[in-house]
Structure formats: C-alpha cells, structure tokens
Amino acid sequence: MKKIAIIGTGRVGLPFGLFLESLGFSVTGIDKDIALLKILRDRIMPFEEPGCQDLLTHSRIQFTDDISIIKNVDYIFITVGTPLMPHIETDLSNVEAVIKSLIPHMQKGQSIFLRSTVAPRTTEYVKSFLEEHSSFRIGKNIALAFCPERLAEHKALAELKTLPQIIGCEDELSYEKAIEIFAPFNVKMFKTTYISAELVKLFNNSARYIEFAVANQFAIYANEFDQNIYDILRLANEDYPRGFIYRPGLTAGTCLRKDFGMINELSPGSDLLLASWKINEFMPYHLIELAARHAEIKGAKVAVLGYTFKRDSDDTRDSLVPKLIRYIERKVPHEIVLCEPNLKTQVIERYANRNISEALQGTDIVFVAVNHKEFSNSNIIWKALKPEALVIDIWNCLGKNQVVLRKERV
Ligand SMILES: NC(=O)c1ccc[n+]([C@@H]2O[C@H](COP(=O)([O-])OP(=O)(O)OC[C@H]3O[C@@H](n4cnc5c(N)ncnc54)[C@H](O)[C@@H]3O)[C@@H](O)[C@H]2O)c1
User: Which atom of ligand 1 lies closest to the CA of 150?
Assistant: First the structure.
C-alpha cells in the first residue's frame, strides 16, 4: 500500500488526507498544532466539511507532530497555510519551516508535492533550496511538483472527485509520481510548468475576486446616484447574452482576499488586482456611509447578522465583518449585537452572539453582513423588528431587491 504524509491537516490537508485514504492510500497527518492533533485523534472534525466527519470516525489515519515519520512514506504533500504578510508579500515561513525540517529525514525515491497556494516562482525556490541543502536532485532521485488545490470549502469531497488536477512539474519522474497519486481520483490531469500551475491557481481566484469587485464598484456607483443596484442588475442581466454582472457583497475569505498579493508582490505598478482589492476592502465603510445617510448610528442599537467570511460557513478567517464592526464602533452606537448561527460560541469578540429574534429585539439598524440561509427567511426578520428599523442588505438576502430598507415601507 502506498504511503502518504500530509503536512498541515487544516481545511485543505484534512479533507484531502481523508479522501486519499478512501481511495486506498495509507495516510499519516502531520501538524504542529498540538490542540488540533488531539481533536483529530479523538476523531472529531475541527470544522464543518460535509462527509468528512463520517470518514474521520472510521479513519485509521495517525496524526502526529513528529516530522521524522516522513522517512517511512513514499509521497509527501505540503498543505500548510500561506497567508500574506502585513505587506504585499507572501508569508512563506510555514513552507520554509516544513522544507527545512524534511531534509534530514528525506529518502531517495520520495516525492514532494506542494499543494499550498503560492506566488509564482515559489516551486522553483523550493527546488533550489532542497538541492542546495541536500544531495538530492529533483527529477533524478527525488520528485517535486506543484499540484494546487482549487476546491471551495464545504464542497471538498465533491470537488476532489470532479476538478481537473493541474500538475506543475519540470521532469518526467515528477510527472510519473504525480500520476500515481492522482490517477485514482478519476479526474482530468493537466501537465504544465511550475509557474503556469502557480498562475492557474492564482488566476482562478483573482478572476472571481475581480468579478465581485466589479459588482461592488457598480453598487457603490448606484448608491451614489441614489439608485437601486438590484433594479439595475435585473435590467442589465435579464435575457442579455453578453456577460453577467454579479451581486455585490462583502468579498473576502482566506483565499480570495490574499491571492491577489501573490501576483502583486512581483510587480511594481498598480493593476486591476490591486484596484479590486481596494474596492472590495472599501465595502464595509461604504455600508456604514450608506446607513449613516438614512439613520443616526450614534446611540443606536445595531445588529450585525453574520460573522463568517462566506454563506453557510463556520470559517471566520479573513472575514470583512470584524472590519464592518470596527467602523460601526467608530460611530459610537449604544449597543452592538451579533447573530452568527454557524458559530456555537455565546460571545464573538466582545459581543453577544444571539439568535435572530433576540438580536433584532429593539434594534434600530441591521446590517445583513453575510447571506446565510437563516437570514433569507425574511418573515422572521420582519416580525422581530420594530417598524422604523433600518436594514442594510447588500446581498439582497431578504429578497426585497433593495440594499436600504425600512421595515415600515416594505
Ligand atoms: N481553505 C481553502 O478553501 C483553500 C482552498 C484552496 C487552497 N487553499 C490553500 O491551501 C493552504 C492551506 O490552507 P488551509 O485553509 O488548509 O489552512 P489551515 O490554516 O486550515 O491549515 C494549515 C495547517 O498547517 C499547519 N502548519 C503550519 N505550519 C506547519 C508546520 N511547519 N508543520 C506542520 N504543520 C504546520 C497549521 O497548524 C494548520 O493546521 C493555503 O495555502 C491556502 O491558501 C485553501
């Protein structure tokens, strides 16, 4: 049985490892997070990912922080986090730490697959580093490929079975080794260079980020002209065959929000990605300005519905909602309450996490910050609100085709 080590058993590495095990590979999970390892050994999923709890419950995966076990495996996948620094610069420290810790334990014939999202030229850097600090030679006695993960959270198991796998490699041995792993996935496989593979991943995410920025820019324009963006979108999109304009929203998340920087760190000028970042990052402030045009935030009770970075998710990483809350705070409201049904905690940051009805009791201003399914039942929301309450619904979650609504006028 072929043996695989997954280094970084988070949102990408854990579902990937469970899926590989379901295909018959022998998998070991390595992570530096001791608390996470304990949860995994107790066979508890640390986050929501459909189908994974069942696989984990019946899994034989060993979870460890001992990197030396890699000497007993055939393939090593690196799935550690690659955030941006506070600068426009990838924080490669996790990848670098892993590569350094691997070298003393590596064996001839092994394969290393980088699966974390990285900036162009990172795989080339990993190759140079490995060859400089060891006697191994990529393509001769060790394999190296960049095989990006392109799935969306909460669709991991479904998309691992369907998304084509990009294989960035520059020698035959590495390609053959990658095929040994990915052929059983029964998906299309595309061979390309390191940099093309790195760019495919970044272009996929950046294209979405730009599309949402276009939608957000148009919403800002419409609101500045005091027009209804949802009327305009319906008129622009209906039966129009050339192009589709997306809905506006708080566009963020651990991938979309950072990946623009991985291209931008290598280019000196302004570009569309940077402009998109600016627009998407401006949206929380835009929503505050919009609310302030219609109501006094100072002294008001404000409810924020949703806290995670995307719909029906429990992932808060890189959400724009904390930023929205900080801007609300600067307007000195009397009270802020949150409602985040996907988080079990009673308190988020320092605010109470209430159910919808409690959060809306006596509320003056409501921001629908995330388009969770719980918020699309507008009957519950209208019933709980007082007549003069103002609602800012950038996602059109309530289905009223208006960003700015007053209960008494709906
Ligand atoms: N989350 C997604 O939907 C998604 C989708 C596609 C690609 N990606 C990319 O995949 C990578 C991982 O993302 P994620 O969401 O799984 O992150 P994550 O934070 O959920 O998981 C990363 C794990 O790596 C571990 N780790 C970090 N440094 C380590 C080290 N030196 N040794 C051992 N373990 C270490 C962390 O403790 C953590 O558990 C990132 O590059 C991300 O951009 C994420």
Answer: 6
Whole-prediction pTM: 0.95
Residue 177 forms part of a structural domain? yes
Domain co-membership, 244 together with 187: no
Amino acid at 15: P
**pLDDT per residue as tens digits for the range 260-298:** 999 999 999 999 999 999 999 999 999 999 999 999 999
In which band, very low, low, confident or very high, does the pLDDT at 165 lie, cut at 50, 70 and 90? very high
How far apart are the C-alpha atoms of 383 and 70, rounded to whole Å?
A: 58
Interatomic CA distance for residues 324 and 338, integer angstroms: 12
> Cα separation of 7 and 297, whole Å?
47
- One domain, residues 170 and 103: yes
Taking the CA of residue 13 as reference, the ligand 1 atom at the shortest distance is: 16
Token pair, residue 409, equals 């006028």
Contact 16, 160 (CB under 8 A): yes
In a domain, 326, yes or no: yes
Q: Which residues pair with 390 in a beta bridge?
A: 365, 406
Opening angle at CA 313, ends 187 and 213, nearest 5: 80
- In this structure, are residues 79 and 115 in contact, taking their beta carbons and an 8 Å threshold? yes
Amino acid at 156: A
Kind and range of the H or E run holding 406: strand 404-406
Q: Crossing angle for the helix pair 272-294 and 321-330, nearest 10 degrees?
A: 40
Note whether 406 and 389 are within 8 A (CB). yes
The residue whose C-alpha atom lies closest to atom 36 belonging to ligand 1 is 8
φ, ψ for residue 29, nearest 5 deg: -105, 130
SS3 388: coil
Q: How many domains does the chain have?
A: 2
162 and 221 inside one domain? no
List all residues whose CB is within 6 A of at least one atom of ligand 1.
7-13, 30-33, 36, 79-82, 94, 97-98, 116-117, 149, 151, 153, 254-255
Q: Tell me, yes or no, whether 24 and 148 share the same domain.
A: yes
Rounded to 5 degrees, what are φ and ψ at 44?
Answer: -115, 130
CA contacts within 13 A on the Cβ side of 123: 28
Domain that holds residue 355: 208-409
